[in-house]
Specification:
By secondary structure, this protein is α+β, with helices and mostly antiparallel strands. The chain has a single domain, classed as GAF domain (Beta-Lactamase, 2-Layer Sandwich), CATH 3.30.450.40. It has three helices and seven strands. Strands 1, 2, 3, 4, 5, 6 and 7 form a seven-stranded antiparallel sheet that branches. The longest helix is centred in the first third of the chain and has 16 residues, at about 10-25. The model is unreliable at about 105-110 (pLDDT under 50).
């Protein structure tokens, strides 16, 4: 698949769509880590999510998620180096914060999230993540 600067978002979105189908998950996201503002960003021109959220709210609560107030997966964007798998506990503050962020776009019952940090020369530059509503058992194979 050809990838140049102009169709990068479209290519990223197609790759995520293929991964959602291949891994049998509900959604996938690709986020950028901005160390200058200590936040994880979903930048429409460069970074993608699948499926696209219909009627994305403005301002988008998922556009910039600061590490200091983030749930465990987004906070992991700060300096994570290994894949992470988590099942958010519906009674936890992190789960309520997560649900609050996605309330206008999706609702999930205790989603299972698997995410892998993207590294460049030892620095975490982003995060590739997968979400399965209602839980999922992730295996290393």
């Amino acid at each position: 698949m050809d990838a140049t600067a102009s169709p990068a978002a479209k290519v990223s979105q197609q790759v995520l769509a293929n991964l959602v189908e291949q891994f049998d998950v509900d959604a996938a996201f690709l986020r950028h880590t901005d160390h200058n503002v200590r936040a994880s960003k979903l930048i429409a021109e460069l970074i993608a999510e699948w499926p696209p959220r219909p009627n994305r709210p403005h301002p988008d609560p998922l556009a910039v998620v600061h590490f200091t107030s983030a749930d465990p997966v987004f906070a992991y964007c700060a300096a994570g180096e290994e894949p992470i798998v988590t099942q958010l506990d519906p009674a936890s503050h992190a789960y309520r914060a997560y649900q609050g962020r996605i309330a206008q776009s999706r609702r999930a019952a205790s989603p299972a999230v698997a995410a892998a940090p993207l590294l460049s020369r030892g620095v975490t530059t982003g995060l590739l993540g997968f979400i399965k509503s209602g839980g999922r058992t992730w295996t290393p194979n």
